[in-house]
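Give me the fold.
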Amino acid sequence: MTILRNCALSMLLLGGAMLPASAQQGGAAGPQTAPRAPGQNPNGMHIYLWAGLKSHNVGQHDYPQFLADWSKLLTERGAVVDGSLHPPTGADLSHADVVVIYKGDAAYLTPGEKDDLETYVKRGGGLVTFHDSLCGPDPAYFSTLVGGAKKHGEVNFTLDAPIPYTIVDKSNPIMKDMSNFTISDEAFFLMTWAQNPGIHVLATAEIAPTRSAGTHKGEIAPQIWTYEHTLPGGQPARAFVWMQGHTYANFANYQIQRMLLRGIAWAAKKPVDELVDYVAPPRPAGRGGQ
């Protein structure tokens, strides 16, 4: 029986050594590592998408749809993408170049989530936020991470209204495809801004005369900006913010989409056109549908 057991063990080890190459990809990770999807760029920027559960009406605040659509879009543009509907853990953040947040009230963070996010930013990790991701209970704190934030519960929004963009920094490469034009979405005002350093405004909008705007109608408020800063004890980090996204269809607007792709690359400290100009390499002949 000992001889039989030894023979069985030898066959098992031999079988493991003869696993097909596709099952052995991943090196030290072992044969259980899944093979890379065909056509995926192994050297692309690592992007983590932090989304949330669907809220609001049809076509609004569609965070899960963003996770699905943009994981596909960014992968097709050469990025290595991960993501979830919950705050990223330290392990999730360990390989990320940039975290893109599209989730209502993402600034509500537990002490552990704060620690993970701060550790990530201190090593130079980039942050990108869309729409109400920068809303929470302590805007002074969250503004130190992304440059500006808004207080949950305050009336600081226009609801569905025209957003007439004025491009303030037309020379900035992020704004290369952006012109002064108007979309229907939601703008924010009554922001808490970071100080020393402050934000770099890329575009502003005049606050529309909605009921919620009240006496703030006509104010000129930043809606798109960048933020470069260094947390105490950390390395320089970047953040990019687009405050629209209430209406999900605006993510597909040609000017806006290319602006967002450039903002993500900039926050990741990559060439600003890396996602916009990416061309997938030709697939090897004879691979079929694999």
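Residues 1-30 have pLDDT under 50 and may be disordered.
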